[in-house]
Structure formats: structure tokens, C-alpha cells
């Protein structure tokens, strides 16, 4: 991605800040929330160990250098990682589910749009405060840093794709390489293997790497950079780009119905899509309604208002 584009979008409203030297900060502003109430109900749990685990995840995600680009303070990618520990079959071994939420600001507004949300039900790992965890992107080391590195690259894909067409491609390859290394070496195959859970990390990156989903990823640039980012100045153009994108999604969905990436998109965007299109002309609302109820039937009740 051209970093100058992103800097323009996020910093130009801050006229004086834009004249100041660029800060060389890491890419992410990750907030990790660790919930271990279920463990407390099952067994004795050390709060200090849980605090150290949360600190490790925060530090790893925020302090690792993931790209060669320079990010100013106001350019950092905002992410939340909510981890719910559900079971500890033995000391240091944990089973959990996790939710990743990636967002970015919309140019010319105070609104933050969710780029992507993903629920991972196969978050299993080993962690002992007394043991140092190592990460090597070229050779599988340990489960927890590999899962976190995968999430970081997924966040980069969606952020970069929103600022330039297919800008996240280098991170698609990185995430795919992590999955291939992990599926051959990880003790927790269910999270990585193609023959396991159809909503696991393998299928997420498989979708993003597949040429069948290239139009979807190209469409993200139209949706965000040419759509949402001009909403303040030209809301009619925003609605036109959203409809164009929804037609693209329909075409991709016909080739790959019920795909993980498209389902995750609508999980994140249904309310936003409704709020954008409810202001449209009657024919635009009707077109949006037909597309949305076919692509996201679970939320038909929300979209129903577009047809009124």
C-alpha cells in the first residue's frame, strides 16, 4: 500500500500535525481483553498468571514490527482481541474462543468503521509465565505467537485493502505461509487444517488467497476509499459505490456460497449497510434490499425497512 494515501486520509484534518515529523511507531493499537471467569468457576486460577498472559498478548501484537512501512501515531490500525478462556485441561494448557475486530476511521468524520470481525472457536495454546515464547515466521515455533501473528496479518490485509486496491496482498501470503507451517506442525490441528472446522483459520486465508475472491478484495477499496471516505462530501457517490460492491459480492457468492469471508463481512457491516442505503432513492433502496436479503438472509428483519 502507498503509505502516503493513508497518511493523507487520516492526518490531513490535523493541519499542524501534518507538518510535524512523522513518528516511527509500530503498526497496531491492539487492545486485548482476557476473560477467565469460566476457569475460576472450574478450578483455582492465579490472577497474576492471567495478567501476565494478557500483557504478553498485548505486547506481542503491539510491539512486533509487522511491515516495513512507517506509521504515525494517528495512523495505527485499531484492533480488539477478546479472548474467553473456557477450559484448562492441565497446567499451562488453555482452550478458548476469540473474537478479532479490526476498524479504521472514515475520512472527514468522527465515525469508525469495522473492517472485519472474526470469531475463532479453536483458540488452544500453551502458556506458562516462567517460559519464554518464541516466534519465527519461517519455522513453526509455538502455538500462541503463531495464532497472534496470523491475526495481525489478517488485520493488515483488510486495512491495506481498504486504502489501495489489493494493497493487503503481501500479508495474504504471509498469513498463508503461517497456516501452512502450523497445519504441518501444530498439536492443535482443528484451528489450522483444511479437513477440520470449516470456519477455522485455514478457510479464512484460503478465501482471501483464492482468485475467486479477488473481485471481493478489489471491491473493498471501492467500498471504503471511494465510498465511505467521500460520504461527507458526496453521500450519493457513497451509495452508488456500496451498490456496486454488493453486486460484486453477489457474483462472488454465486461461485462460493456461504463462504467464511463473505459471512464475516455481513456480520460486521449489516447495520452500516442499512444506515447508508436507507437514505437512498426508492430504486436504490429496492436494489439494496434485494441484494442484502439474498446475501444475508439472517438479517432480513433489519433490511425489511429498505423495502418500505
Structural summary, described in words:
- The chain has 308 residues and is an alpha+beta fold.
- It has a domain of 161 residues.
- A four-stranded mixed beta sheet has the order 1-2-3-4, sandwiched between helices.
- The longest helix is centred in the middle third of the chain and has 21 residues.
- The chain starts with a helix and ends in a 5-residue tail after the last helix.
- About 6% of the residues have low confidence.
- Specify the helix fraction band: 40-55%
Strand arrangement, largest sheet? 1-2-3-4
Report the strand count: 4
The coarse silhouette is: globular
Major sheet, described briefly?
4 strands, mixed
Radius of gyration: 20 Å
Which structural class should the secondary elements be placed in? Answer: alpha+beta
Instruction: Give the averaged pLDDT, no decimals.
Output: 91
What's the helix count?
Answer: 12
> Kindly, what is the distance between the CA atoms of the first and last residues, rounded to a whole number of angstroms?
41 Å
Could you state the order of secondary-structure elements as H and E?
HHEHHEEEHHHHHHHH
Ranges where pLDDT stays below 50 over 5 or more residues in a row are: 7-24
β-sheet strand percentage: 15-25%
Signal peptide: 1-25
Organism: Dyadobacter fermentans (strain ATCC 700827 / DSM 18053 / CIP 107007 / KCTC 52180 / NS114)
Protein name: DUF4835 domain-containing protein
Keywords: Signal
Amino acid at each position: 500500500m502507498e503509505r502516503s494515501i493513508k497518511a493523507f486520509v487520516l492526518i490531513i484534518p490535523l493541519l499542524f500535525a501534518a507538518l510535524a515529523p512523522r513518528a516511527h511507531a509500530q503498526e497496531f493499537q491492539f487492545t486485548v481483553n482476557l476473560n477467565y471467569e469460566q476457569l475460576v468457576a472450574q478450578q483455582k486460577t492465579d490472577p497474576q498468571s492471567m495478567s501476565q498472559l494478557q500483557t504478553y498478548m498485548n505486547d506481542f501484537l503491539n510491539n512486533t514490527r509487522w511491515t516495513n512501512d512507517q506509521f504515525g501515531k494517528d495512523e495505527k490500525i485499531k484492533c480488539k482481541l477478546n479472548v474467553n478462556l473456557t477450559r484448562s485441561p492441565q497446567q499451562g494448557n488453555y482452550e478458548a474462543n476469540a473474537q478479532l475486530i479490526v476498524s479504521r476511521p472514515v475520512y472527514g468524520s468522527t465515525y469508525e468503521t469495522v473492517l472485519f470481525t472474526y470469531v475463532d472457536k479453536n483458540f488452544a495454546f500453551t502458556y506458562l509465565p516462567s517460559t519464554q515464547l518464541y516466534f519465527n515466521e519461517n519455522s513453526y515455533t509455538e502455538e500462541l505467537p503463531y495464532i497472534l501473528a496470523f491475526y495481525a496479518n489478517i488485520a493488515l490485509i483488510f486495512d491495506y485493502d481498504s486504502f489501495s486496491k489489493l494493497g493487503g496482498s503481501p500479508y495474504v501470503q504471509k498469513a498463508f505461509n503461517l497456516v501452512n507451517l502450523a497445519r504441518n506442525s501444530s498439536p492443535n490441528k482443528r484451528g489450522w487444517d483444511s479437513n477440520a472446522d470449516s470456519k477455522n483459520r485455514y478457510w479464512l486465508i484460503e478465501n482471501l488467497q483464492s482468485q475467486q475472491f479477488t473481485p471481493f478484495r478489489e471491491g473493498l477499496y471501492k467500498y471504503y476509499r471511494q465510498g465511505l471516505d467521500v460520504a461527507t462530501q458526496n453521500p450519493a457517490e457513497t451509495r452508488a459505490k456500496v451498490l456496486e460492491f454488493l453486486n460484486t459480492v453477489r457474483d462472488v457468492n454465486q461461485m462460493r456460497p456461504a463462504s467464511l469471508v463473505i459471512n464475516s463481512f455481513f456480520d460486521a457491516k449489516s447495520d452500516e449497510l442499512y444506515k447508508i442505503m436507507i437514505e437512498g432513492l426508492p430504486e436504490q433502496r429496492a436494489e439494496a434490499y434485494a441484494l442484502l436479503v439474498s446475501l444475508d438472509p439472517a438479517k432480513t428483519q433489519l433490511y425489511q425497512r429498505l423495502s418500505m
